[in-house]
Automatic annotation (TrEMBL):
Lineage, highest ranks first: Bacteria, Bacillati, Bacillota, Bacilli, Bacillales
PANTHER family: PROTEIN YJDN (PTHR33990:SF1), PROTEIN YJDN-RELATED (PTHR33990)
Domain PhnB-like positions: 11-128
Domain of life: Bacteria
Gene3D superfamilies in the record: 2,3-Dihydroxybiphenyl 1,2-Dioxygenase, domain 1
Organism in which the protein naturally occurs: Cohnella rhizosphaerae
Protein name: VOC family protein
Matching SUPFAM superfamilies: Glyoxalase/Bleomycin resistance protein/Dihydroxybiphenyl dioxygenase
Pfam families in alphabetical order: 3-dmu-9_3-mt
C-alpha cells in the first residue's frame, strides 16, 4: 500500500517550513541543498532540494525551493484532524496569521468542528476536530 506525501514547491522552503513548524508544532527531519545533495556548483547550489518536516505528530510534509516561478496553488488542500477543539482552534489561528480565513472554525451542521483557510504561502488548509 502506498503512502501519500505532500510535496510543496516553494519560493522560500526554509521560511515556509519554519512557519508550519511554529503553527503546527513538530520538527525538521532533514534538509539538503542542491550543492550538498548533488554537488552542484551553480546559482541554485544553496537552494533547498529536499526538506522533510514532521508536523502535528507523525505527519510528514516535504518542501523544496522552486527553480521556476511558483503560482500559489488553489487546487490542493491539506487537512489535519485533531482530537480536541482546542488543538484545532490553536492550529487554525496560527496558520491563519498573514493568510485569509475562508470559513471560520466552528461546529458544522454535519457534526464536525471545521475551519478552512489559505495560509500566507497560498496553501489551503482544512482543520477539523471530532
Amino acid at each position: 500500500m502506498g503512502a501519500l506525501k505532500p510535496y510543496i514547491q516553494s519560493e522560500d522552503a526554509r521560511a515556509q517550513a519554519d512557519f508550519y513548524l511554529q503553527a503546527l508544532g513538530g520538527k525538521l527531519m532533514s534538509v539538503g541543498t542542491h550543492g550538498e545533495l548533488m554537488g552542484a556548483d551553480h546559482e541554485h547550489k544553496d537552494k533547498v532540494m529536499h526538506m522533510c518536516i514532521a508536523v502535528s505528530g507523525d505527519n510528514y510534509v516535504f518542501l523544496a525551493d522552486a527553480i521556476e516561478p511558483v503560482d500559489a496553488g488553489s487546487a490542493i488542500s491539506l487537512s489535519i484532524g485533531y482530537g480536541s477543539q482546542d488543538e484545532a482552534r490553536e492550529a487554525f489561528v496560527k496558520l491563519a496569521e498573514g493568510g485569509q480565513i475562508r470559513h471560520p472554525i466552528e461546529m458544522q451542521p454535519f457534526g464536525l468542528y471545521y475551519g478552512e483557510l489559505t495560509d500566507k504561502f497560498g496553501i489551503r488548509w482544512m482543520i477539523t476536530a471530532g
